[in-house]
Design brief:
heterodimer; B: seven-stranded antiparallel sheet; 20 helices
């Protein structure tokens, strides 16, 4: 969609793609990391059980966010989604705080 | 289909292509080495043809510890893998003067076998360490696996008709044929591809996704690992020497506690110290889950000081995912299916990279960047197998007592792949493909024969050992396949070129 909407030549297009590539790599990994932390702290069961649940979920976030980064209507909108998700998961993890013990 | 859905597919195809291009070459090496690793013990046996002695796992570990006690005295740890119905040596890793050494120990004498080689371990390590120093190789492998996961998901979404692709193949039609082949390879074994990619990420989780651990344990990694394996006894060395109690009774006690299931690995921390700990791990061959039970013993007395059998659901899930990737539980037909699945993924990656070039060549003359991609494709897809075949040949040819022999084998294998890559960059693909495929065929024909190969074959046949003849037959099969590809490349090339050139002129 958006990728095709712009002209495929020129720096404008390249900048558009570069910003999205960053969202799809650094951004996706960031969201995945925050999700891993949120689930690890939310999770029931022992400390390590929740860590495993969080880690397994986190990997699934990477392709999902990477795809979002390229289907979003614009490159900054793509980053907007990344920031919102990271803030949501990161904020959740931060509010819950480290487990006791 | 609505315009938005069509657009979505195009974006997915675009993302699939670029993700594949970015890490395709790394993924090809990983997939091929991983596929070889399915037969890691068999490759090791092929590469140590003189090692034919066999002993039970308990006797073999006892012999190995006796030898290590006199030869690796100051070590901080011995890590042993027992022989089983696939491997016939004890694989020992220990530190010697600050360096880790890996040796294959004779199951009867306990001493290293004559032909010093890494055997199948080379492919196994290459699969996730890529011959790069720790942790960079594992990082690159993790990034490649994440790219693969993204490429798989985008590949699925980009598809109009997943089910029909099961049955679609239109040969000798240039881009169409490559696309059909790529789709079939990807779709037919899709559940395997998804499983192996996801579980591969999980095996390196503590490196590539440590944030859950950080959230719940902070910097206390030791506590996390203790929770993961609560049976593990971590005892610092006391600094006072002591001798290890006989190990056979400990191994028998461990197997009794495993409910009669065999052990496979044994680690001895601080051997020769009064605080030494012997830990015996249950074999992965009898269940999917990896390392689901362990028993620890006090080294000098042989008393049980820790035992654990995994029953927690989340950790059990992790063990099963880990075990699914290692595939050590898979015997017989299932092992061949792992091999087939890996081979299909390797070919899917290779055909995808070739497709990148073919698609662009049929539209217009290739740009300089894509001409470089085309040559790198030749260098990696044909050059990496050349390195592997050279590794097998050199194993037969290097003299037995050579200093640092195992490392020399690896160096020559990497050099061979490197030279092949340089050759592929130097000459046009029209020549590069047949040249490299010819060299690959030659090396695969040579591997079973050179350095007394035929005498090993006749000895194996006399013993009634089917493994070595089968491996030789597989090598000949690869050689014949390489020859067939060579013929196809030399014959087909002008046919594809003509329409593209005609269009360019018009």
């Amino acid at each position: 969609m958006a990728v095709r909407a712009v002209d495929r030549r020129g720096w404008r297009y390249r900048g558009n793609v570069a910003v999205r590539v960053l969202a799809a790599t650094v951004g996706a990994y960031g969201v995945a990391s925050c999700l891993a932390m949120a689930v690890a702290r939310l999770g029931a069961g022992g400390r390590i059980d929740a860590v495993i649940a969080g880690t397994l979920c986190a990997y699934l976030a990477v392709p999902a966010v990477a795809i979002w980064a390229f289907v979003a209507r614009g490159p900054w909108r793509a980053w907007g989604g990344v920031v919102v998700l990271a803030a949501l998961f990161g904020g959740l993890a931060w509010m819950i705080g480290p487990p006791a013990r | 289909m609505s315009a938005i859905r069509e657009g979505m597919r195009q974006v997915m195809a675009w993302l699939h292509g670029w993700t594949g291009l970015a890490l395709g070459w790394v993924l090809f090496v990983m997939c091929l080495a991983g596929t070889m690793s399915v037969f890691k013990p068999e490759i090791s046996r092929w590469m140590r043809p003189e090692a034919t002695a066999s002993a039970g796992r308990i006797e073999a570990i006892a012999a190995a510890t006796n030898w290590l006690a006199s030869s690796a005295r100051g070590s901080t740890g011995w890590y042993l893998t027992a022989p089983d119905d696939r491997a016939n040596v004890v694989e020992a890793t220990y530190d010697k003067g600050g360096d880790y050494v890996a040796r294959a120990l004779d199951p009867v004498s306990g001493a290293p076998v004559a032909r010093e080689t890494l055997g199948g371990e080379f492919f196994y390590r290459l699969h996730f360490e890529l011959e790069l120093p720790y942790p960079w190789g594992r990082w690159l492998a993790s990034i490649a696996a994440l790219a693969m996961l993204t490429a798989l998901v985008t590949g699925i979404i980009a598809h109009r008709r997943i089910f029909r692709d099961f049955f679609t193949f239109r040969p000798r039609k240039g881009q169409r044929s490559w696309l059909d082949g790529h789709n079939a390879l990807g779709v037919l074994a899709l559940p395997f591809h998804l499983m192996i990619t996801f579980s591969g990420l999980v095996t390196l989780a503590s490196l590539n996704m440590p944030w859950g651990i950080v959230a719940n344990y902070g910097n206390d990694l030791a506590a996390a690992f203790h929770d993961l394996a609560p049976g593990a006894v971590d005892r610092p060395a006391a600094g006072r020497p002591a001798t290890l109690a006989p190990i056979a009774p400990m191994l028998r006690e461990a197997e009794r506690r495993f409910g009669g299931a065999p052990f496979s690995r044994v680690s001895i921390a601080n051997p020769g110290d009064v605080a030494s700990v012997v830990t015996v791990y249950r074999s992965d061959a009898a269940q999917i889950g990896a390392t689901v039970a362990e028993v620890s013993f006090d080294g000098p007395s042989g008393r049980v000081i820790g035992a654990w059998s995994e029953a927690r659901p989340a950790v059990g899930t992790y063990a099963v995912i880990y075990g699914l990737h290692m595939g050590r539980f898979a015997g017989g037909l299932l092992r061949w299916l792992y091999f087939l699945g890996g081979a299909m993924l390797t070919l899917a990656v290779a055909s995808g990279m070739i497709l990148w070039v073919v698609k662009r060549r049929e539209r217009a003359p290739l740009s300089l960047a894509n001409r470089i991609v085309e040559r790198l494709n030749v260098g990696i897809i044909a050059g990496v197998p050349i390195g592997f075949a050279a590794y097998l040949c050199v194993n037969r040819l290097l003299p037995i007592g050579l200093i640092d022999r195992a490392q020399q084998e690896v160096t020559i294998a990497l050099d061979a792949a490197g030279i092949a890559l340089l050759a592929a960059i130097a000459v046009p693909p029209r020549l590069g493909w047949p040249l490299l495929l010819g060299v690959l065929a030659l090396l695969c024909f040579a591997a079973p024969v050179v350095g007394g190969g035929l005498s090993y074959l006749s000895q194996a046949l006399a013993r009634g050992d089917a493994m070595l003849p089968m491996a030789d037959a597989l090598l000949i099969g690869v050689a014949l396949t390489a020859l067939a590809c060579m013929r196809a490349v030399t014959r087909k090339r002008p046919e594809i070129r003509r329409p593209a050139r005609a269009r360019a002129i018009a």
